[in-house]
Amino acid sequence: MMKAMDARLAKFAIGQVVRHRIFPFRGVIFDVDPTFANTEEWWLSIPEDIRPRKDQPFYHLLAENDQNTYVAYVSEQNLLPDESGEPVGHPHAALLFDNFEAGHYTMRPRIAH
């Protein structure tokens, strides 16, 4: 019989706007992994002194900084709520989310076959 692993609830929600604790970027969460689910190469590319633990939620963000927009993969320990109340300027936000209200996006309904 397999013993179920203790599931840890994610601190942040899909549609929530967050900012990075160290680096100057912010974004909207569009997916969450309960634990690290990227490549070992990606994880090892992070400087050891700031490398996050793998046993925590990791968030997929439509992210932006002063120069551009991109997709980021960030550990829970490195995220903080964004208090600006401003929407994210990522061009794909309108593809995934319906509207923005009170610092939070609403996910578009998904079409399934």
Describe this structure in words.
By secondary structure, the chain is mainly β. The chain has a single domain (17-107), classed as SH3 type barrels (Roll). The protein has two helices and seven strands, in the order ββαβββαββ. The chain has helices at 40-44, 93-96; strands spanning 17-20, 26-33, 58-64, 69-75, 79-81, 97-101, 104-107. The strands form two sheets. The protein has a five-stranded antiparallel beta sheet, with no helix packed on it. β1 (17-20) and β2 form a beta hairpin.
Low-pLDDT windows of residues: 1-7
The main β sheet shows up as:
5 strands, antiparallel
Task: State the helix count.
Answer: 2
Strand content: 25-35%
CATH architecture tag: Roll
CATH topology-level name: SH3 type barrels
Strand order of the largest sheet: 4-3-2-1-5
Let me know the average pLDDT.
Answer: 90
Given the C-alpha coordinates, what overall shape results? globular
User: Distance N terminus to C terminus?
Assistant: 35 Å
How many β-strand runs? 7
**Alpha-carbon Rg, integer:** 15 Å
| Helical proportion, percent range | under 10%
How many domain modules? Answer: 1
Give the SSE string: EEHEEEHEE
Structural class: mainly beta
CATH top level label: Mainly Beta
